[in-house]
Design goal:
With 291 residues, the chain is of the alpha+beta class. Helix content is 38%, strand content 13%. It is globular, with a radius of gyration of 20 Å. 36% of the residues are buried.
């Protein structure tokens, strides 16, 4: 009985590696995925992209680290990497195989519940469909930017994202329709869905959420830009800490838009940070706050 659990893990790991190798042989970039469906965090050497990360975030791949670091960008089709010793330990902790849809020219419309599935069936053209534990994945041929919460229970996973492999699905893959692309443009890209706005108690009683005050928000973004600009050392850490502070103050009320995020990224890039570093720091801050 003592060795039952390790044996089961090894068997599962072996099956996951077999699936990953088969998918990789077909040209699908894959990576191990824990049970909580989030990619494994960076190793100590790659934390906060101390390793330099990858200069190009538009295609899958890795830094020189032999471990599966950098989230979705760890996805690979290299069998030597997938079956390497450093990855073996990670496979034993994994619960599934994930893949990078944008790496094979695919967009996944992730429908998270029955209501979302019903909406898709009434709105979107039929396509290749994969059943999930709670809903369905609808796969279309074509790529676009990945956006979460485009509507209730609907995420879009394509470029710079990952999706869990749940089988080949049924049906024939259709071209990416304009209706799906429009989902990413209909509402400003906010950190949280609009339904969560004005959930923070107003200071002093009564009135609107202070985060909705243009002056308060503008002052916060300006201070964040200045903090990054004034950094003379440890720029990586300063950028991450600043992103974390901004999200802590403004991330849950829905008032943070792409314009604000672009300002923060621009300030960071002016200090030598790459777009890759900015994206990973922002994602890490979101994860740290549970967003």
């Amino acid at each position: 009985m003592t060795h039952a659990t390790p044996v089961r893990r090894d068997v599962l790991a072996g099956r996951l590696v077999d699936v990953a190798l088969r998918l990789a042989a077909s040209g699908l970039p894959v990576l191990p995925l824990p049970a909580d469906k989030r990619p494994f965090g960076n190793c100590a050497d790659c934390t906060m992209n101390a390793c330099g990360g990858r200069p190009n975030m538009k295609t899958p791949g890795r830094c020189l680290c032999p471990r599966p670091c950098h989230g979705w960008a760890a996805a690979t089709t290299d069998p030597a990497v997938l079956s390497s010793t450093p990855w073996a330990a990670v496979w034993r902790r994994a619960g599934a195989v994930a893949y990078h849809p944008g790496g094979v020219g695919v967009t996944v419309v992730d429908l998270d519940d029955a209501d979302a599935v019903a909406w898709a069936r009434a709105t979107l053209p039929p396509t290749l469909t994969v059943n999930t534990t709670r809903g369905e994945h609808w796969l279309y041929s074509g790529v676009m930017r990945s956006v979460n919460h485009v509507r209730a229970g609907v995420d879009i996973k394509s470029l710079m994202s990952y999706a869990r492999w749940l089988g080949p699905g049924t049906g024939t893959m259709a071209p990416l329709p304009p209706d799906v692309r429009a989902l990413a443009e209909k509402k400003p890209s906010t950190v949280r869905p609009a339904a969560s706005t004005v959930t923070v108690p107003a200071p002093g009683g009564g009135g609107q959420c202070r985060h909705r005050s243009p002056a308060y928000l503008e002052r916060g973004i300006a201070m964040a830009e200045q903090r990054i600009t004034d950094a003379t050392s440890a720029v990586h850490n300063t950028v991450y800490a600043t992103f974390l502070a901004v999200l802590s103050a403004h991330g849950r009320c829905g008032c943070l838009t792409e314009v604000h995020i672009e300002r923060l990224f621009a300030a960071a890039q002016a200090k030598g940070e790459s777009p890759r570093h900015c994206t990973v720091a922002w994602s890490n801050a979101l994860a740290a706050l549970g967003m």
